[in-house]
């Protein structure tokens, strides 16, 4: 057994390791890390299918190879790549290290803050839903004039493949009428 056997890949990214482990508490090492390893302590909700599971946020506690905590509640960068991360065995010092409990409330708070920074929070979803639910007035905008439409506040709907304005925006609607975007 070689000392660098941990670098051999099993072809899993961090999300797949999390799924295979049944949750947090497993250990990883990055192939480019010289003197650290990490314990995965939480991942956001898996909203899509493997292998990326919707790219949720993942948190870790980073330790030195001898057991000292280097960084707590750190974001796992690029957890979706299988080329970078390796799952490793629990280090021998872990039993006596006083590891963070996986039900520590600070983990949930850190994950919520990370989700907000990454735009993964619920507020963005509710904003998108409210934008879809508001009454819309479709516009007839030729591609060559799309910048004019943007200048009056028109929005592009990729679903409908058309420009639109909110029905209650009377000023923008009158400008759209003047530009000839409304029938």
Our count of helices gives 5
Rg, rounded, reads 24 Å
Which runs of at least 5 residues are low in confidence (pLDDT < 50)? 123-131
Oligomeric status of the shown chains?
single chain
Question: What is the molecular shape?
Answer: elongated
**What string gives the helices and strands in order?**
HEEEEEHHEHEEH
Give the helix level as a range of percent.
Answer: 25-40%
- Estimate the strand proportion: 15-25%
Number of domain units: 2
Briefly characterize the structure.
It contains five helices and eight strands.
Explain what this protein looks like in three dimensions.
With 183 residues, this protein is α+β, with helices and mostly antiparallel strands. The chain has 5 helices and 8 strands; from the N terminus they run H-E-E-E-E-E-H-H-E-H-E-E-H. The chain has a 5-stranded antiparallel β-sheet, with helices on both faces. Strands 6-8-7 form a 3-stranded antiparallel β-sheet, covered by helices on one side. A hairpin with a 4-residue loop joins strand 3 (58-64) and strand 4 (69-75). Mean pLDDT is 87; it is low at 123-131. It comes from Rhizobium sullae. Pfam families: DUF5710 (PF18974). This is DUF5710 domain-containing protein.
